[in-house]
Amino acid sequence: MLNEEVLINPVITEKSSLLQESNKYVFKVHSKSNKYQIKKAVEDIFDVTVLGVNVVKVHGKNKVFNGKRILTPSWKKALITLKLGDTISLVEGA
User: Fold this and answer.
1) Is 92 helix (H, G, I), strand (E, B) or coil?
2) Which residues pair with residue 47 across a beta bridge?
3) Model confidence, pTM
4) What is the C-alpha separation between 31 and 11, in angstroms, rounded?
5) pLDDT for 4-50, tens place per residue?
């Protein structure tokens, strides 16, 4: 699996923004990837040193749209801890 395929996109929420102050970043990752692949992908793409990777499976939720029940897809997220002083810029363009 290529590094670009492992990381899908960053998760930008209020909670993840607070975590960035303590050098922790949250990414949506490929469902078949493991901690070692995620660590290598982050280090190669962003040129930083990763101290730790925590992975969580987020299960889909039941939603009702126009009277029909739909299950949203499950996905995997990774909490990346970086070495003190390393940062990742999540804003592109601007």
Assistant:
1) coil
2) none
3) 0.87
4) 15
5) 789 999 999 999 999 999 999 999 999 999 999 999 999 999 999 99
Locate the DSSP E strands across 1-94.
7-10, 24-29, 50-58, 62-65, 68-71, 75-82
User: Which sign, positive or negative, has the C-alpha torsion 54, 36, 33, 12?
Assistant: positive
As a whole number of angstroms, the distance between CA 54 and CA 66 comes to 37
Entry field: residues in the chain: 94
Helices assigned H by DSSP within 1-94: 3-6, 14-19, 35-46
Q: Give the three-class secondary structure for 48.
A: coil
The two three-digit tokens of residue 40, written as one number: 């290598």
Cα 70 to Cα 58, 59, 61, 66: the distances in Å are: 16, 13, 8, 10
Whose CA is closest to 53, among 73, 32, 33, 75?
Answer: 33
Confidence band, pLDDT 50/70/90 cuts, at residue 94: very low
